[in-house]
Design brief:
The complex is a heterodimer.
Chain A (H helix, E strand, L loop, with lengths): L1 H6 L1 H20 L12 H36 L4 H35 L6 E13 L7 E4 L12 E4 L2 E9 L4 E5 L6 E6 L5 E6 L5 E6 L10 E4 L11 E10 L7 E7 L8 E9 L13 H4 L2 H8 L6 H6 L1 H17 L45
Antiparallel strand pairs in A: 1-2, 1-12, 2-5, 3-4, 3-12, 4-5, 6-7, 6-9, 7-8, 8-11, 9-10, 10-11
Chain B lengths: L8 H5 L5 H21 L8 H13 L2 H18 L6 H17 L7 H26 L9 H23 L6
Classes of the chains: A alpha+beta, B mainly alpha.
Chain lengths: 383, 174
């Protein structure tokens, strides 16, 4: 027996090592969609060694690289800065004008959404983080960020750049975190084609491309079509840029669906700084300049409908004293809410300009009528 | 007269390394694998831990040592990524075992032999990874482009040759 173990020592060791790892794999396999979600406690502890060994060195190197770039950009490469600044100022002014228009559209959209009791999420608060490393290899599209749970980061938080979405956080350690890129085959994001308004799920392919594979063929979907987040996945806030459609092909393995390849807006291969969305806002904040109309967000659906329907409001008082009327209306509504049993005054009809037999007051009361009498006693016009 | 310290050819061709080298080289390979693609995304195709496993396995000529070296480096490599911990561990354990076993039979100091070994073991690792993902993990989404794997094997071989020459300098043979 002893000679058996001595003779086959090497293969036995190999089998034992493999068996131990297979058992280790089996213990991790009970979780659905493992690569895209955060690890359990034990696995996270196993992965934490990189947080304490590799991440500090990467942080140091990133800092050194940043210092060199800063010195170069701040002192050496300052040509044409003045002209560049003027161009940027002009762009800012143009963008402000566009923003004003878009904000009005957004507020209108919000009002309509409130009527449907549909809540949307927008980017509320972000934390800037720096990319300090990768997951190693080209099979997993993972980046390492220099911020972690000490900075308020949590798993499944969306990560964006000013150009568009980048991915979401996977494992978060005290001083670093893993960013799962949208190009990873295990990632997913709810998206919407901006012009066609078709909703789909964005996934990474094995080759590292970003694809939408849940849509049927549609002639309207063409290269160049913008793609934005739909907000339906509860990870990425709605309306963020994802990219543009690069190609539309039939998916040979999943007929009759199409494989729509999307070119990401953010350059996933050259990420330096990213923004982690740590908080989402339910309402768009109003700019201070338009603070005179804050009641729009709080208006009831009935008021909004009443504003848009003709003939339900008296135009004269509205034109002269809108604020007073709104205050009166609010007071009346508040009174109604607090005392719903209070008797309301009977509404009086407004006087008519051209009375006919249907106008109020032209028809006599039934008590005043006599049998056989044809004309009204007050001499209303005959038909 | 020089004193002969080796009793067999196998002992003569076994190479040893100082603990500092045995520890720091694998760690450096892991760190470089994690950091280099940030600067040059193309370098993600290079599998430095695999090269280190092959080198130490064929140099030590011990199947047990090769198995453990492969397992340790593979597991650490898995912890950096979002894969199951053990996928690379299994693949590199087999590569380490095979490299040490073959290293007993061929002249591993020859450059052409080294190139062929690296190319072959790189393909072997791709095949084992494919089998682990498809059979053990049942991942039907995992696909392999064998042209890409051939390219990976070629690049790994090209990178491995100078690294092997550098690591030859770190031997502590008497």
């Amino acid at each position: 027996m002893e000679s058996f173990f001595i003779r086959y020592r090497n293969p036995l060791v190999l089998v034992a090592v493999l068996l131990a790892q297979v058992i280790g794999l089996a213990t991790q396999m009970h979780r659905v969609n493992y690569p895209s979600s955060a690890d359990g406690h034990n696995v996270r502890v196993a992965r934490a060694w990189a947080n304490f060994t590799i991440a500090p060195v990467e942080k140091l190197l990133a800092k050194l690289g940043g210092g060199v770039r800063s010195a170069w950009g701040g002192y050496v490469d300052l040509r044409h800065v003045r002209q560049h600044s003027k161009d940027l100022q002009y762009q800012i002014n143009q963008l402000r004008l566009q923003q004003a228009g878009m904000l009005e559209d957004a507020r209108q959209g919000q009002r309509l959404e409130q009527m449907l009791a549909f809540k949307q999420q927008y980017v509320g608060k972000t934390v800037a983080a720096q990319v300090i490393g990768t997951g190693g290899g080209d099979r997993s599209h993972i980046l390492v960020l220099n911020k972690g749970s000490n900075d308020g980061l949590q798993p499944d938080m969306a990560v964006i750049t000013p150009d568009g979405i980048v991915g979401k956080l996977r494992d978060v350690f005290p001083g670093s975190s893993q960013l799962l890129l949208i190009s990873d085959s295990s990632s997913g994001a709810g998206v919407i084609l901006a012009n066609v308004r078709s909703r789909g799920i964005l996934r990474g392919s094995v080759k590292g491309q970003v694809q939408i594979g849940t849509l049927l063929p549609d002639e309207r979907i063409r290269p160049g079509e913008p793609v934005v987040t739909s907000g339906g996945d509860r990870v990425y806030p709605r309306g963020l840029s994802v990219g543009t459609v690069q190609s539309v092909q039939l998916d040979p393995e999943h007929q009759p669906y199409t494989a729509i390849t999307v070119k990401p807006s953010a350059n996933l291969d050259r990420l330096e700084e990213v923004l982690v969305v740590t908080d989402v806002a339910q309402q768009l904040t109003l700019p201070p300049a338009t603070g005179s109309a804050p009641a729009d967000g709080d208006k009831r659906a009935s008021e909004i409908v009443a504003e848009r329907l003709p003939g339900l409001r008296d135009p004269k008082p509205a034109a002269t004293s809108t604020d007073t009327n709104a205050a009166d209306q609010a007071a009346k509504e508040k009174e109604l809410i607090t005392n719903p049993h209070k008797t309301l005054p009977t509404p009086r009809p407004t006087p008519v300009l051209h009375p006919d037999r249907y106008s109020p007051g032209t028809v006599p009361n039934a008590a005043d009528l006599q049998p056989g009498q044809r004309d009204a006693p007050n001499g209303s016009p005959k038909p | 007269m020089a004193k002969r310290r080796f009793t067999t050819r196998r002992e003569m061709e076994e190479h040893n390394f100082s603990p500092a080298v045995a520890l720091s080289v694998p760690l450096l390979a892991l760190f470089t694998t994690a950091y280099l693609p940030k600067l040059f995304p193309v370098t993600a195709i290079v599998d430095l831990p695999l090269i280190v496993v092959i080198y130490f396995s064929i140099s030590r000529r011990s199947a047990v040592a090769g198995t453990f070296t492969g397992a340790a480096l593979g597991l650490l490599q898995d912890t950096l990524s979002n894969q199951y911990i053990g996928v690379n561990g299994i693949a590199k354990s087999i590569v380490g075992y095979a490299a040490a076993s073959i290293g007993l039979k061929v002249d591993v100091d020859n450059t052409i032999t080294r190139a062929m070994l690296n190319f072959g073991f790189s393909l072997l690792q791709s095949a084992v990874l494919f089998a682990v993902q498809r059979v053990l993990l049942g991942s039907s989404l995992y696909r392999v482009s064998w042209v890409h794997e051939l390219l990976r094997a070629g690049v790994n071989t090209a990178v491995a040759i100078p690294i092997f020459l550098l690591l030859d300098l770190a031997r502590t043979d008497d």
